[in-house]
Amino acid sequence: MLQVNDVHAGYGNLKILRGVDMSISDGGIVTLLGGNGTGKSTLLKAISGLIPLMKGQITFDGLDISKLKPHERVRLGIVQVTQAKEAYPAMSVEENLVLGAYTRKDREAIKVDLERVYDFFPVLRERRKQMSGTLSGGEVQMLVIGRGMMAKPKMLMLDEPSAALAPKVVLEIFANINRIAKSGVTILIVEQNVRMALILAQYGYIIRDGIILIEGNADMLIKDPAVKESFLGGSVADVSRGLNKK
Questions:
Q1: Is 242 helix (H, G, I), strand (E, B) or coil?
Q2: Helix, strand, or coil (residue 76)
């Protein structure tokens, strides 16, 4: 589905990514892990077209998208939910969700997908007429993920969906991400909660200093002594039951 080949990117003259290679197949969940400033969010922005490439190529479903504009990539099925959790506070929950379908013209299908989002996040159905500015942090995260789903993504990229949320809410968010993946949407998730991300995902990449340092099956990474020492504090808690991962 997605191929990232020798990608270099950054901001102005500041290069952050220094030759990233990544391959994501259709289906399932892939996680991108690393510390602050290692290039995680920069890579998502390069894939979604929010920053230009300095070098390299990105293809999606066999099409070179390296120079396409962000809205053109959205139409192809690449949708990013940013870390900022940006909802429009003066708009209702439903208005925010419908805004996610701005590139689409299929009105009847939009209605179907709106109900699908409400099935994933029942609390949003309960709050559908409520102004989004009155929602809790966890509800806003559900809202922005739901809005991303309204663009009908083939691949949904999530940047730090657990940031600043209570542990119980994080578990609920991750369980819903797992349900979305099982519905057929490929997910690329950037996370600092390494333990949770590796339990959720099937495959993982670890980035450091703008290059991919380690990659492999999530089950392999979670048992890797170097990964445990650097990212997991030496142990892994089994919360897979709460995520309903199969």
A1: helix
A2: helix
Contact 224, 204 (CB under 8 A): no
Query: For the chain, where are the E strands, in sequence order?
Result: 2-11, 14-24, 29-33, 53-60, 63-64, 78-81, 155-159, 186-191, 203-208, 211-217
Q: Categorize the per-residue pLDDT at 238 as very low, low, confident or very high, splitting at 50, 70 and 90.
A: very low
Domain architecture of the chain: domains with CATH:
2-245 (3.40.50.300)
pLDDT at 200 over 80: yes
**Is it the case that residue 215 has pLDDT exceeding 50?**
yes
CA dist 185 and 27 (Å) reads 6
DSSP 155-204: EEEEE-TTTT--HHHHHHHHHHHHHHHHTT-EEEEEES-HHHHHHH-SEE
DSSP letter for 36, please. T
Q: How far is CA 246 from CA 66, 104, 107, 178, in A?
A: 34, 33, 34, 9
DSSP 50-61: SS-EEEEEEEET
- Across the range 41-46, mean pLDDT stands at 96
Q: Does the structure show a pLDDT above 90 at 105?
A: no
Q: Which of 67, 151, 79 is nearest to 113 (CA)?
A: 151
- Checking if the pLDDT of 237 tops 50, the result is no
CA distance 111 to 98: 9
- Would you state the pLDDT for residue 244? 53
* CA gap 170, 152 in Å, rounded: 24
